[in-house]
Write a structure and sequence with these properties.
This protein has 480 residues and is of the alpha/beta class. The chain has 20 helices and seven strands. The chain crosses the membrane at residues 7-26, 93-112, 143-161, 173-199, 211-232, 268-289, 301-321, 327-349.
């Protein structure tokens, strides 16, 4: 097995990266827009790009004091729009790229530390990790995939810095980029760096110059952004960042995001169940009893400490925070894949024949199960017909810049965030509040009508023209 992996490693790794790319990019631009963070980020990136203001995120052209994130994730969305166009592919492009880069970085790192067989297993684990690919991450326009990439880069660099000191500064710079992506979440990285340097005694070997350079790479980019942002609205944005995004989220379960101390363990079980069972089996099978203290030192105990901190710190941090959201746990998946690859390769290369065969079979079954979950997700996209109806406007000429009103005869239909983003991306439409009478008074206006008992009456009595329709409803305008 070792010789096979050595000889054909580039081919096997390419196959796994193709699998990961398929899981991430398949129908990426056709899945409907999520109504929460993805849509909010997409609207802000669109408006920032249109206005040419790359520092102040807005929503419906007002400064957004709800989405209190620094601008880096918005820049990623904007870059996607410029490359792929104003559409859902552009919205998600750099999330997908970030996820692929995360997988590649893990593969390269594990190959360096544990060998080619371990690298392939770690790559397979992350390439079939359901939550990492499908939930608020690789396949969405949220900030999380980019954040996980910087998080992973920071910790991998930290684990390499004893070999080359420059990696410590790279770790600090990745922390800065992670903070500029997802704000206080990056505190986990800073905590891991501090604990790692403290518990391993590495801090004693750092000179004043080392400390100055580390703090410069960690905080200079953040300070530069803060100084420039301050010119726009003073301390208001920063006060909200601290009061709401840090203190309130930590001390209160805001916006209904509740959960107990087992919340993130249950999340891991729901999304990573069979890989988690495999990991538990690997821990039980691995001959830890054969490791003496001296041998543990020879195998670089500091490295294993770093891996443990990578898992423990985020889990503890978010477990004790009152607001519980399942995607907060995303940064631990790369390190879980590293550990699974490392332990599996040790057993496959040194274990008994029956154990090796059982483990190889288990890895195959587990990866197929999670791949089946991913394919089920890819094959059953949410319908969201009202979003698809708005997207149809792109196919019709001369509607750019029109006002769009909404009428729902069955229940009040508010402007959800994904409706706002779809209207902007696919028609550059102006979002309007009002009823049918307001629509009729406005020139160059469209009306989104849900099918119901009075929709046909509204169309016929006002002699409106249907420009597009589907099972959900119609988009109409006045006769020209």
């Amino acid at each position: 097995m070792y010789g096979l992996c050595q000889r054909y490693y580039p081919i096997f790794l390419t196959v796994l990266l193709v699998l990961a790319s398929y899981n991430i990019f398949y129908s990426l631009g056709t899945f409907p827009i999520s109504s929460w963070d993805e849509a909010r980020h997409g609207v802000s990136a669109y408006e920032m790009l249109k206005k040419g203001n790359f520092l102040v995120n807005t929503y419906l052209n007002q400064i957004d004091y709800w989405n209190l994130k620094p601008p880096l994730s918005f820049w990623a969305n904007m870059a996607g729009y410029k490359i792929a166009g104003y559409n859902t592919l552009g919205l998600r492009l750099f999330s997908a790229i970030s996820a692929i880069l995360t997988i590649i970085f893990v593969a390269v790192f594990v190959n360096l530390k544990h060998g080619k067989l371990a690298s392939l297993i770690s790559t397979l684990t992350l390439a079939t990790c359901t939550q990492f690919l499908t939930d608020h991450s690789a396949r969405t326009g949220d900030a999380d995939a980019l954040f996980v990439f910087f998080f992973t880069t920071a910790i991998l660099s930290l684990l390499l810095f004893k070999e080359k000191p420059i990696f410590l500064y790279m770790s600090g710079f990745a922390f800065a980029l992670a903070f500029l992506t997802k704000s206080w979440h990056a505190g986990n990285i800073a905590a891991i760096i501090c604990l790692y340097l403290l518990l391993t005694g590495s801090y004693k070997k750092l000179t004043y110059i080392n400390w100055i350079l580390l703090f410069t790479f960690m905080f200079a980019p953040i300070f530069a952004w803060a100084c420039i942002r301050y010119q726009y609205d003073g301390m208001e944005f920063f006060n909200n960042m601290i009061a709401y995004d840090l203190l309130k989220r930590s001390s209160n379960a805001i916006e209904g995001h509740i959960g107990g101390y087992s919340y993130y363990f249950l999340t891991l079980w729901n999304y990573f169940s069979f890989w988690l069972l495999l990991l538990i089996g690997l821990v039980l099978l691995y001959p830890f009893r054969e490791l003496s203290i001296s041998k543990l030192k020879a195998e670089k105990a500091t490295y294993y400490l770093g891996l443990c901190l990578w898992i423990i710190v985020p889990i503890l941090f978010f477990t004790f925070a009152k607001t519980k959201i399942r995607w907060y746990i995303l940064p631990v998946y790369p390190t879980l894949s590293v550990i699974i690859g490392a332990l599996s390769s040790k057993i496959l290369l040194n274990g008994k024949t029956a154990t090796r065969a059982a483990l190889l079979f288990s890895i195959l079954v587990v990866s197929l199960f999670h791949e089946w979950e991913i394919q089920t997700y890819l094959g059953n996209p949410p319908s969201k017909l009202h979003i698809r109806l708005i997207q149809n406007v792109q196919k019709i000429d001369d509607l750019k810049g029109y006002s769009l009103f909404v009428h729902n005869p069955k229940s009040p239909l508010k402007w959800t965030q994904n409706m706002v983003l779809a209207s902007k991306l696919y028609g550059d439409l102006l979002i309007e509040n009002g009823d049918v009478s307001d629509f009729l008074k406005r020139e160059n206006a469209l009306l989104l009508l849900r099918k119901g008992h009075d929709s046909e009456d509204i169309i016929n009595s006002n002699q409106l023209t249907i420009i597009t329709s589907n099972k959900w409803g119609y988009i109409v305008r006045k006769n020209m």
